[in-house]
Design a protein that fits this description.
The protein has 7 helices and 6 strands, in the order ααββαββββαααα. With 152 residues, it is an alpha+beta fold. α3 packs across α6. The model has no long low-confidence stretch (mean pLDDT 91).
Length: 152
């Protein structure tokens, strides 16, 4: 019943149990999970910030950094595997991809007003999903869920 707990969990014991289970599997704080897990069109998704923070804090990789083209219209998220020193580059994300996939053309899209931030978030999500999918427990980010649902 705490006002610090997101409303969807207040008085909803079943969702609290699910969030606590996810927190245990991720070795994360339950309140942090509840504040970062959102239901979009009936599906759970992480905030991009939480997913990036979880990856950066896992201890297996260096912090994610980003490489942009000179035009700042393409982005790649990059990390280093700490055990081997090997650089890992995620899939490239571009404004052209955002347009082709319909992410940037829908009403209210943050791709229109914050393209560099959205490139970073999407590039990081792709890197994490392809490099360490267990960190996100197979869930998409909330931005991805909005884009997927709006495209279908």
């Amino acid at each position: 019943s705490s006002s610090l707990v997101p409303k969807q969990y207040q008085g909803n014991i079943a969702d609290v149990v699910v969030a606590m289970n996810m927190a245990r599997r991720m070795n994360a704080d339950p309140l942090m999970v509840m504040q970062s897990l959102h239901i979009i069109h009936g599906k759970p998704g992480w905030s991009a910030q939480f997913l990036i923070a979880s990856f950066n804090a896992c201890g297996r990789f260096g912090a994610i950094y980003y490489e942009f083209t000179d035009e700042r219209d393409e982005c790649v998220a990059i990390t280093t595997e700490l055990a081997t020193g090997r650089e890992i580059r995620g899939p490239k994300v571009s404004l052209e991809m955002a347009k082709s996939e319909g992410w940037s053309t829908k009403a209210g899209s943050k791709w229109k007003t914050m393209p560099e931030l959205m490139l970073r978030y999407r590039a990081a999500a792709f890197l994490i999903r392809t490099t360490a999918p267990e960190i996100g427990l197979g869930l998409y980010t909330t931005d991805e869920l909005k884009d997927i649902n709006d495209a279908s």
